[in-house]
From TrEMBL:
Source species of the chain: Rhizobium wenxiniae
Stretch forming the signal peptide: none
Domain PAC: start-end pairs: 88-140
Enzyme Commission code: 2.7.13.3
Example of a GO MF term: protein histidine kinase activity
Designated name of the protein: Blue-light-activated histidine kinase
Record keyword Phosphoprotein present: yes
Gene3D superfamilies reported for this sequence: PAS domain
Gene Ontology BP terms: regulation of DNA-templated transcription
One protein family per Pfam: PAS
Length: 337
């Protein structure tokens, strides 16, 4: 044999070995079968995807991985290959050795012999399970975002309309709307920073206080508690109104605020209750909220409690202001947190 022929054979063997290595290391299942449907090759990715070893699969009918209601797909593949038609990648369902269906995309290529006659098919099957699950989660997320955005539009519209009804001039209206929407935005920032997975009540209060210099002393007391998104937005709105009221109408030099919360057993044994209390001293204008003509009054008396399925109370005795909220713990706390 001449040196030239030996060189060509070595090159051919090297190319075949390299192709085999590529096929075997592919993340996608690569399978070949003849036109009768007998499996001729089966790579490691096919073993992982379908749960059958190469020894178990090779020599078997391709139907071992095709659900009965999809047999017609294989018939159509063979028909089109024989006609020389190009087969576009398509999505379908195949079957694991356990009988469990698996969503895949399949790319089909013809296999020809030395004379160019089509003798079989090479198929690349890509597992779409994770991609489909991600699509499902994305759809759920988009629906949730849509729901939350609509809720926030409703809150913002309420803020605008209620503030407008109680404002005496455009400057005051603009300032209060901006402050209230910024308060909502602080709660949104917190939720976004944790992918809407829940916010600690302490963090919520600190975040609401941060924009106001000279808001005075705050003492916090209560267990660690992760609030769900709805509770963060509503309790955040209440805290914003209380802080604004404090900055405007409390004697900061003499005043202090105690914020306490707890989870306790309610009136019924199966309904634990979340209780929050804001106690503020040295109020300069103790009758302000008692007049009930402000948006803050609406938030603290009705909106927050209604949104959380609870009750709230506003009391002023002498110069001490107390606001309390009681709601079902299930409406406030992240489950199992």
């Amino acid at each position: 044999m001449s040196e030239r022929k030996l060189s060509k054979r070595r090159q051919k063997n090297h190319s075949a070995a390299r192709l085999a290595a590529i096929v075997d290391s592919s993340f996608d299942a690569i399978i070949s079968n003849d036109l009768d449907g007998t499996i001729a090759s089966w790579n490691k990715a096919a073993e992982r995807l379908f749960g059958l070893s190469a020894d178990e699969a090779i020599g078997q009918s391709i139907h071992i991985i095709i659900p009965e209601d999809r047999y017609n797909e294989e018939v159509d593949i063979v028909r089109r290959l024989k006609l020389g038609e190009k087969i576009d990648t398509f999505e379908t369902v195949r079957m694991k050795s356990t009988g469990e269906p698996v969503q895949v995309s399949i790319t089909v290529s013809p296999i020809s012999d030395k004379r160019g006659k089509i003798v079989g098919a090479s198929k690349i099957a890509r597992d779409l399970s994770e991609a489909k699950e991600n699509e499902r989660r994305l759809r759920l997320l988009m629906r949730e975002i849509n729901h939350r955005v609509k809720n926030q539009y409703a809150v913002i519209l309420s803020v605008i309309s209620q503030t407008a009804a109680r404002s005496h001039d455009i400057q005051g209206f603009e300032r209060r709307v901006r402050e209230r929407i910024m308060g909502l935005s602080h709660s949104h920032d917190l939720l976004s920073s944790v992918d809407w997975a829940g916010v600690e009540l302490r963090s919520l209060l600190s975040h609401q206080v941060k924009p106001f210099n000279g808001a005075g002393e705050f003492r916090l007391s209560g267990p660690d508690m992760l609030l769900d998104a709805n509770a963060v937005l509503n309790i955040g709105m209440a805290l914003h109104e209380l802080i604004i009221n404090r900055v405007q109408f409390a004697d900061i030099d003499r005043s202090s605020v105690d914020v306490t919360w707890e989870a306790c057993q309610g009136d019924t044994l199966d309904e634990p209750t979340f209780q929050l209390a804001w106690r503020e001293t040295a109020i300069r204008n103790p009758d302000l909220l008692a007049q009930g003509n402000g948006f803050g009054s609406l938030v603290l008396r009705r909106i927050v409690a209604s949104s959380l399925g609870g009750v709230s109370e506003w009391k002023i005795i002498d110069d001490v202001l107390t606001w309390t909220l009681a709601a079902p713990l299930s409406k406030v706390k992240i489950r199992d947190a």
